[in-house]
From TrEMBL:
Catalysed transformations (reactions): L-glutamate + acetyl-CoA = N-acetyl-L-glutamate + CoA + H(+); 2-(N(omega)-L-arginino)succinate = fumarate + L-arginine
Protein name as annotated: Argininosuccinate lyase
Alphabetic keyword roster: Acyltransferase, Amino-acid biosynthesis, Arginine biosynthesis, Coiled coil, Cytoplasm, Lyase, Multifunctional enzyme, Transferase
Coiled-coil residues: 44-71
This protein's encoding gene: argH
């Protein structure tokens, strides 16, 4: 059924219909089109453009279609409708007759498809964040397992300096952390609802568009109808994030392929992620990682295609925009699949530790240690660099490693070199010296793993139930604090105080309902305290308290705070979160000032714990 046939006296040519119709790919938007239609019907009812009975009919029919699509996502493909919007309307008319024809009052396919696509991108964006977090978790397990396993490091694909295999994995953790950050920024820009923009000039229906946006889970309604229907920046944002993420997956794939090669042999793949050759029996091929590398170009292509499609388009909607979907769907599916495959593959990798350690000593990778040794003897670094280079050249000519040269041989290059040089040329000495923040020393790697785990826990919390508090949360926060104050667990706080300190609060949600809160209070001493932590009883036992704490610990780190404390009657809870006991009497005096307000100040039963960031 066409949605636009009244003005036309002849049907569309079959050739044009085949070229024009989009149902073959936009059927994937069915769940979101139905969701948007349910919200629109409710908004029309509130605007008195639908009766309660008509709204009920539509809601029931739309819900039945939603169940049918959930059971069979390809259900719309059993028809020859033009697009997903036509399919939904045709199905509704078949179910409830003339009432269905009222649903399109005040809206256009232009604002509807823009809304559908944003809802799709919000859902897939959340999946991509979760996919990255799972991959980070796999890399962190690898890093912990091999945090002290030496590996040859390279620049220009030439042996450079030894690194720890855990340090190598953490480099990719950093990259994927940035990918999560990019996706989160993209998600903020997606969170705008164009529904109610009409074809281009807005709707004549007397709707509350902000309430409509909120009912669909958007934070904002679009503020310009022209932009609302024609904006596809949000799709480009996701494609850019996907393309950059695929760069990182391609780089890790290239590294693994090299380290697994016969020329390196530092890594081994399990048979579960390897394939063989149809001709050469000895082969064990890294096909999984080659596909990760290869699929990167596919995602790049989709990003470039959409940029080219949008370039120079006039306002507002143009049929060119139908080309926004196929590439976007494929690119995001490819990226998510590649993240899932990386997560699956990393536990199947192992380091050939003895071989890798031996490889790490080759290539005169201890030359920098010799140069630093000479600097410690008072020789300027540039001269030390030259002396070391000459010693390396000599050692190469003698087919010896540096540590095999005698003192007499070393003395040809500098009289400052003595017997104390040999311990410095050992592999362990060099890597252990690189213990500054970001270095490859096992001690530095351990610290980096702790930081990365803290970040992961906070990111997991933020991707599930926890977010920064907003002014609109103040009443719920006050309700939570009042509840626990009545139990004697929290100090009371009035609403004005909560509003003034709203930036210090985080909230936990279940089904978009605030069920918990906590605050990070920062003292003038630079110390921070987690306080006002509480959940409604029905929300307890679901891990939300731990998520709130993880979120605030990461917030403290971002603020540059190095020590966070709690005063609590449940020290075992914080102990499970790696807080450790501290002495309450040694806390700064300002920390203890609230004790004057506490009814238990003369019989305090709180325990002090701290977390060092």
């Amino acid at each position: 059924m066409s949605l636009w046939g009244g003005r036309f006296s002849e049907p569309s040519a079959a050739e044009f219909k085949q070229f024009n119709d989009s149902l073959r790919f936009d059927y994937r938007l069915a769940p979101y089109d139905l969701q948007a239609s349910q919200a629109w019907a409710q908004a029309l009812h509130q605007a008195q453009l639908l009766t309660a009975e008509e709204n009920q009919q539509l809601q029931q029919a739309l819900q039945e279609l939603q169940v049918a699509v959930d059971n069979d996502p390809q259900l719309p493909l059993q028809t020859d409708e033009e697009d997903i919007h036509s399919w939904v309307e045709a199905q509704l008319i078949e179910k409830i007759g003339a009432t269905a024809k009222k649903l399109h009052t005040g809206r256009s396919r232009n604002d509807l498809v823009a809304t559908d696509l944003r809802l799709f991108c919000k859902a897939v964006g959340a999946e991509l964040i979760s996919g990255n977090l799972a991959a980070i978790q796999a890399l962190l397990v690898f890093a912990e397992r091999y945090q002290a396993a030496p590996l040859p490091g390279y620049t220009h694909l030439q042996r450079a300096q030894p690194i720890m295999a855990g340090h190598w994995a953490l480099a990719y953790v950093q990259m994927l952390q940035r990918d999560v950050s990019r996706l989160k920024e993209a998600m903020k820009r997606i969170d705008v609802c164009p529904l109610g923009s009409g074809a281009l000039a807005g709707t004549t229906a007397p709707l509350d568009r902000e309430a409509l946006a909120h009912s669909l889970g958007f934070r904002y309604a679009s503020e310009n109808s022209l932009d609302g229907v024609s904006d596809r920046d949000f799709a480009l944002d996701l494609l850019h994030s996907a393309s950059t993420g695929m760069v990182h997956l391609s780089r890790i794939a290239e590294d693994v392929i090299f380290y697994c090669s016969g020329e390196s042999g530092c890594f081994a793949m399990s048979d579960r992620i390897s394939s063989g050759s149809s001709l050469m029996p000895q082969k064990k091929n890294p096909d999984l990682f080659e596909l990760l590398r290869g699929k990167t170009g596919r995602v790049f292509g989709h990003q470039h295609a959409l940029q080219t499609t949008l370039k120079g388009l006039p306002l507002a909607y143009n049929k060119d925009m139908q080309e926004d979907k196929e590439g976007l769907f494929d690119a995001l599916h490819t990226y998510l699949q590649c993240l899932q495959m990386l997560t699956f593959a990393v536990p199947e990798l192992s380091v050939n530790e003895a071989h890798a350690k031996q490889q790490a000593t080759l290539g005169y990778s201890n030359a920098t240690e010799l140069a630093d040794y000479l600097v410690s003897k008072g020789i300027p670094f540039r001269d030390a660099h030259h002396i070391t280079g000459a010693a390396v050249l000599y050692a190469q000519q003698q087919s010896k490693p540096l540590e095999a040269l005698t003192i007499d041989e070393f003395s040809q290059f500098s009289a400052e070199i003595g017997d104390d040089v040999y311990p410095i040329l050992e592999l362990e000495y060099g890597v252990n010296q690189r213990k500054a923040l970001g270095g490859t020393a096992p001690a530095a790697v351990r610290t980096a793993i702790k930081h990365a785990n803290d970040w992961l826990h906070a990111a997991e919390a933020a991707s599930k139930h926890v977010r920064q508090a907003r002014l609109s949360d103040a009443d719920k926060i006050c309700e939570l604090i009042a509840y626990w104050a009545e139990q004697g667990e929290n100090l009371p706080r009035d609403k004005a105080d909560v509003l003034q300190a709203i930036q210090s609060f985080a909230v936990a949600e279940i089904d978009d309902e605030v069920v918990g809160c906590a605050a990070l209070y920062v003292y003038s001493t630079g110390l921070a305290e987690i306080r006002s932590l509480g959940l409604f009883p029905q929300a307890q036992g679901k891990g939300l308290g731990a998520e709130l704490v993880a979120f605030l610990l990461w917030k403290a780190r971002e603020l540059g705070i190095s020590r966070t404390i709690v005063l609590t009657r449940v020290p075992e809870f914080f102990g499970r979160l790696n807080f450790r006991l501290t002495v309450k009497d040694k806390l700064p005096e300002k920390v203890m000032k609230d004790c004057e307000l506490c009814p238990r100040k003369d019989n305090c039963d709180e325990t002090a714990l701290e977390y060092l960031l």
